[in-house]
Amino acid sequence: MSEFDPFVADWISYVRNPRYTLVEKCLKIGQVLEFPDLKISEYVQKLNLLGKGLRDSVSDVKNPTYLISMLNEYIFDTLGFEGDSDDYYNPRNNFLNVVIDKRSGIPITLSIIYIELASHIGLDLRPVGFPAHFLVKYSEEMILDPFNKGRLLDIDDLQEILDRSYGSGVEFVPGYLNEIEPEKILIRIARNLKSSYNQSFNYTLAMRCINMVLDLVPNSPEEIRDKGILQSRLLQNDVAIRSLNKYLELAPEADDVDDILDLIRSIKEKSSQ
Question: How many domains does the chain have?
Answer without folding.
Answer: 2
